[in-house]
Design brief:
Distance between the termini: 71 Å
Strand order of the largest sheet: 2-1-3-4-5
CATH class of the largest domain: Alpha Beta
Order of helices and strands: HEHHHEHEHHEEHEEHHHH
Helix content: 40-55%
Largest sheet: 5 strands, mixed
CATH architecture of the largest domain: 3-Layer(aba) Sandwich
Shape: elongated
CATH topology of the largest domain: Rossmann fold
Number of helices: 12
């Protein structure tokens, strides 16, 4: 047992804080979760008779952007001087931002509460331990920022290569080379061909309509009234083309030209 753990600490409760940042980690990173729950046995081996496990924040990030009810319970127990020690696998389990981390350290120093992780026992009232805890919190926040930066740079690199496509349109499939091709399914091919023919016929009608609108002399000879001439003053293809886009550019559809290629 560490010399920093006094008999007064042992009369209080040891709180084991368990947290993972996402539901994916909760489902698939079972080994890390079991290591955190095993800290309850370590707290008992250090002499604490009462051990409480707080796992209300499973699947919640510690970056400070989401509310964490379990972390709030932990701070409440510290303020009430009910906690003799708070235990976590590492500093990043408590918080991924310096605001929450240093707030936790200050409260532990005020109430004589120890912090215990997988490396050792720390007393926030001691200057050396407080310095080490501050470095652990800073490294934890830096690690999260570094992960975000790397993920963002990798995403931008995929954008430059043209490999980013969130959802493949209906009638197309994604190949192993991250290319988009027409689906080999017969039903999807028939619908894609129908979409191509419809787009081609609408394109012809829109071009004819635009040509009629640009011929202002023809409009004047055909329409003598001011009201009617005003209604034909703009290109009548705007409504037709808008309707065409609404029909053909529906979510999940990609307009094709007559040869089955992307018209865009």
């Amino acid at each position: 047992m560490s010399e920093k753990i006094s008999p007064e600490h042992l009369t209080r409760i040891a709180y084991v804080y368990v947290r993972q940042s996402s539901l994916h980690q909760v489902r698939h990173h079972r080994e890390g979760l079991e290591r955190q729950y095993a800290l309850a046995e370590r707290a008992q081996s250090l002499g604490f008779r009462q051990v409480v496990v707080i796992d209300d924040d499973l699947g919640v990030t510690g970056a400070g952007t989401h509310e964490r009810p379990g972390f709030g319970r932990l701070l409440t127990a510290i303020c009430q001087k009910a906690a003799g020690a708070v235990v976590a696998l590492e500093a990043s389990r408590f918080a991924r931002n310096n605001r929450d981390w240093h707030h936790l350290i200050d409260l532990c120093a005020m109430t004589d509460t120890l912090l215990i992780d997988d490396d050792g026992v720390y007393d926030p009232r001691l200057i050396n331990d407080r310095l080490l805890l501050g470095l652990k919190g800073t490294m934890s926040e830096f690690e999260l920022s570094l992960l975000h930066q790397r993920a963002r740079e990798a995403f931008e690199q995929k954008v430059k290569r043209g490999c980013v496509l969130w959802q493949v349109p209906v009638g197309f499939v994604r190949t192993e080379e991250y290319q988009v091709e027409k689906s080999p399914t017969g039903k999807c091919s028939r619908r894609s061909n129908w979409c191509s023919r419809s787009f081609a016929s609408w394109a012809v009608r829109v071009r004819r309509c635009c040509g009629f609108a640009t011929s202002r002399s023809a409009c004047r000879r055909a329409c003598q009234g001011r009201t009617v001439r005003r209604s034909f003053g703009g290109c009548p293809a705007s409504v037709a083309s808008t309707n065409c886009c609404v029909i053909l550019l529906m979510p999940g559809r990609l307009p094709m030209d007559g040869r089955g290629r992307n018209s865009g």
